[in-house]
Design a protein that fits this description.
The protein is α/β, with parallel strands linked by helices and 143 residues long. The protein is 18% helix and 13% strand. The strands form 2 sheets. The protein has a 3-stranded parallel β-sheet.
Length: 143
C-alpha cells in the first residue's frame, strides 16, 4: 500500500450534485428549488416546527401531566418474589443480583401481593403496612 493508491471504500463516497449548470443538466436555472418563496432564497429557511406564522402544533396543544424523573430509581417487588428467593436476609444488592429489580433502583418496596410462608429478614428494603404484617406473621422482620 502506498499513499498514492489509497482511496475510499466502494460506496463510501457520493456523487456531488452540481446544480445551476445549464438547461441540459436537468437541474439548471432554479437548481431544483422551484419558483419564488422562502425555500428558494439563499439563506432562507425556517426553524423546526415553524408553520408559516400559524400557531405551531406544539404550542396549540395543551400541556398535560407530569412524569417524575426520580421514578426510575424506585422499584417494587411482591411477596411471591420474596417467597421464591433462597436468601433469608434480603437487601437491595441481593435483589439486583437475582434480577428482581433493575440496576438503577435505589429504593425498593415490598407490596402485599401474593403470600409468604417462610421467615425473611428485610434490610434496607421498605414494605407496605400489609406486606409488613404478612412478613411478621410468617416469622420474619422488616428492619
Amino acid at each position: 500500500m502506498q499513499l498514492n493508491t489509497i482511496k475510499p471504500a466502494a460506496g463510501a463516497t457520493h456523487y456531488k450534485r452540481r446544480v445551476g449548470r445549464g438547461i441540459g443538466s436537468g437541474i439548471g436555472k432554479t437548481a431544483g428549488r422551484g419558483h419564488k418563496g422562502q425555500k428558494s432564497r439563499a439563506g432562507g429557511y425556517h426553524k423546526v416546527g415553524f408553520e408559516g406564522g400559524q400557531m405551531p402544533l406544539q404550542r396549540r396543544l395543551p400541556k398535560r401531566g407530569f412524569k417524575s424523573q426520580t421514578l426510575k430509581f424506585n422499584a417494587e417487588i411482591n411477596l411471591d418474589d420474596l417467597q421464591a428467593l433462597v436468601a433469608d436476609e434480603v437487601d437491595v444488592l441481593t435483589l439486583k443480583a437475582v434480577g428482581l429489580v433493575p440496576e438503577l433502583a435505589k429504593n425498593v418496596k415490598v407490596i402485599l401481593s401474593g403470600s409468604i410462608s417462610r421467615k425473611v429478614t428485610l434490610k434496607g428494603v421498605a414494605a407496605t403496612a400489609g406486606a409488613k404484617a404478612a412478613i411478621e406473621a410468617a416469622g420474619g422482620s422488616v428492619a
